[in-house]
Amino acid sequence: MIKKELAKAYTNFFRVLSDPTRLNIIMLLTAKELCVCQIEMALGVHQAKISRHLAYLRKHNIVQVRREWKWKYYSLARPKNQFEENILQCLKKWLQKEKIFKSVFFQMKECLAQSLDVVAQMAKKLK
């Protein structure tokens, strides 16, 4: 019975990682805590889609959120076990070397150079 529950937990964890948008969000958050609008601009994805994926990641305890004034900041949650910690470390190490993720990190750095108000205004123009 324990083996089945453990296998299900591992399967669910990989299911969370299986979406490209969620994987990109996780990769961005390996670098630092980010505001929703920064994630939007780095990925070039509309706020509704980002929020839906962040809610899914929160539901599965992969990310955590804190509110500061009108901004919501997301960061990676503490891994639930050594398995999740190892997988996230592996992703951070290997995927940051991939060309597509390098471009996402470049976009994130550009967003971080702007004030949140400017980034939020730019993010509103995404459709």
Task: Please describe what this structure looks like.
With 127 residues, this protein is mainly alpha-helical. It has one domain (2-124): Winged helix-like DNA-binding domain superfamily/Winged helix DNA-binding domain (Arc Repressor Mutant, subunit A), CATH 1.10.10.10. It is 68% helix and 11% strand. It has seven helices and three strands, in the order ααβααββααα. It has helices spanning 2-17, 20-31, 36-43, 47-59, 82-95, 99-112, 116-124; strands at residues 34-35, 63-68, 71-76. It has a three-stranded antiparallel sheet. Strand 2 and strand 3 (71-76) form a beta hairpin. Helix 3 (36-43) packs across helix 7. It starts with a helix and ends with a helix.
